[in-house]
Design brief:
The termini are far apart. The protein has two domains: 144 residues, Glucose-6-phosphate isomerase like protein, domain 1 (Rossmann fold), CATH 3.40.50.10490; 105 residues, Rossmann fold, CATH 3.40.50. The chain has eleven helices and nine strands. The longest helix is centred in the C-terminal third of the chain and has 18 residues. With 290 residues, it is of the alpha/beta class.
């Protein structure tokens, strides 16, 4: 029997196509705006990826914050809030407190965020039954990338490859993972590590690739994987392999490579007798009592 998580992972190429074809005009950050992007957990990591891509595209200063840590004294032209559930306490609190123009991206149109934000983009077709976020996170990033005038044709094709290719045994059986990224894929490395922790209770870490050699590489060794999302810095593979550790990377778009990490997380959950739809100690939304 296929779990919700497996079905949602498999649906990502089609969700991305739909997102690219339906980028909302006017609701998302406009060229030249100074933007703060906020979220919690997965949404924060997607915010990190988008913020880097937007600045790299020359469209305006863009900062990403965990919603609970967003600075209240800085002036922005817009706050972009990412919240799958539309009920996350810290996001709603920030939207209530700010006097800045706000946009939210959510999966559920029947939640408080619909009135908390000035404008709302609803991706209900990418909503999920699983607690663990997979397709909603990547679908909103696909839409945001398309809003920056990126062509995602290759990324969508790569997603198909990530779903079709067999999972290497050394990934499913590894003792430990260090996910690495550069630029916008640093946020995706953080998200890959989170997925592995949530779904399979695996020991995972995440770093900017160039920072990995400044201490974290000490954890590398036999049975442990250093997994690069994107292009690795020169010499890094050789340094990791010299420790006896496994260095893994592919030529896929980093967002598609995240799909492979999601699949590994599910496979590892099954190997440990865990249900990836119901990770321990987690619920779909973190709602804090006042």
């Amino acid at each position: 029997m296929t779990t919700h998580t497996e079905a949602e992972i498999a649906s990502q190429p089609e969700c991305w196509r739909r997102a690219v074809e339906n980028v909302p005009a006017g609701a998302l950050p406009q060229p030249g705006e100074r933007v703060a992007v906020v979220g919690c957990g997965t949404s924060w990591f997607i915010a990190m990826a988008y913020a880097t891509l937007r600045e790299q595209a020359g469209l305006g200063e863009t900062d990403a914050f965990a919603a609970s840590e967003a600075p209240t004294g800085r002036r922005y032209d817009r706050v972009l809030a990412l919240t799958r559930s539309g009920t996350t306490t810290e996001v709603l609190a920030l939207l209530a407190e700010t006097d800045l123009p706000t946009t939210a991206i959510t999966a559920d149109p029947n939640t408080p965020v619909m009135t908390a934000a000035d404008q709302v983009v609803v991706l209900d077709y990418a909503d999920e039954q699983s607690v663990v976020q997979t397709r909603f996170a990547t679908t909103q990033l696909a839409m945001l990338r398309a809003s920056l005038s990126e062509d995602l044709t290759q990324a969508i094709a790569d997603a198909g490859r990530a779903l079709a290719e067999p999972l290497p045994a050394e990934l499913v059986e590894a003792e430990q993972f260090s996910f690495l990224g550069t630029g916008w894929s640093v946020g995706l490395a953080q998200e890959a590590a989170l997925k592995m922790r949530e779904a399979s209770r695996s020991w995972t870490e995440a770093y900017p690739a160039m920072e990995y050699r400044h201490g974290p590489i000490s954890i590398a060794g036999p049975g442990r994987v250093t997994w690069m999302l994107g292009t690795a810095p020169d010499g890094l593979r050789e340094q990791v392999e010299a420790t006896g550790g496994t260095f893994f990377q592919s030529d896929l778009d980093p967002m598609a490579e995240l799909i492979r990490a999601q699949r590994v997380a599910v496979a590892r959950a099954f190997a440990r007798g865990l249900n990836p739809d119901e990770p321990l100690h987690l619920t779909r939304s973190v709602i804090l009592s006042s």
